[in-house]
Amino acid sequence: MILETDRLLLREMTFSDLDALLLVLGDAESMRYYPKPFDREMVQKWIDRQRRNYAQHGMGLWAMVLKATGEVIGDCGLVWQEIEGHQELEIGYHVRRDQQMQGYATEAAYACQDYAFNILGRSDRVISLIRPENIPSRRVAEKNGLKVVQETLWRDIPHYIYAVQRSESKLHATSNLSETEKSKFKA
């Protein structure tokens, strides 16, 4: 486990999560703001990329697990993105369609913001790259204090850059990590 919230656990993805993540990333409606839904091979590569991120950066998108049932309902986490020649720490999230509109993305993204600022301490700001028409993701970012700071072409598609500075963040408490886990991730 990397992070825990009231209703969720965020943990490293494994290849045993492939079928659960395919229900999220392979769903045309959930992925309507991506070029296309993922097929099984694309989800496998997605998991592999996250596992490389864990090894290289100590973070990536993590499996989002409902504490009540133990089922994987999506992913959320922190990834480095290159935007206009600069490295930015992005909070990203995907939630299975039948679990959307229940606050899970907001809850998980808030925990990731806390982790970035209070555990990693390696970033003065975090961002989310969101297509302008993606109203649900924009609401998640806004609920967590991020604001549109710029519009950019990212991967040849218009995106808003939502951002919050550490000094502007609403966060005051640290995540529910053990002291051992916290020390492992300090910069």
Descriptors:
187 residues, globular, 30% strand, 5-stranded antiparallel sheet, 5 helices
Descriptive account of the structure:
The chain is α+β, with helices and mostly antiparallel strands and 187 residues long. It has five helices and eight strands; from the N terminus they run E-E-H-H-E-E-E-H-E-H-E-E-H. The chain has helices spanning 18-25, 40-57, 104-120, 135-143, 179-185, and strands at residues 3-4, 8-11, 61-66, 72-83, 86-95, 125-130, 147-154, 157-165. Strands 1-2-3-4-5 form a five-stranded antiparallel sheet, with helices on both faces. Mean pLDDT is 90; it is low at 172-187.
* Tally of contiguous helical segments: 5
Q: What class would the helix/strand composition place it in?
A: alpha+beta
Task: Give the H and E element order.
Answer: EEHHEEEHEHEEH
Q: Can you summarize the main beta sheet?
A: 5 strands, antiparallel
Radius of gyration in whole Å, from Cα? Answer: 15 Å
Beta fraction of the residues? 25-35%
* Shape call: globular
Helix content estimate: 25-40%
- Describe the strand arrangement of the main beta sheet, using strand numbers: 1-2-3-4-5
The residue-averaged pLDDT reads: 90
DSSP strand tally: 8
Would you identify the regions where 5 or more consecutive residues have pLDDT less than 50?
172-187
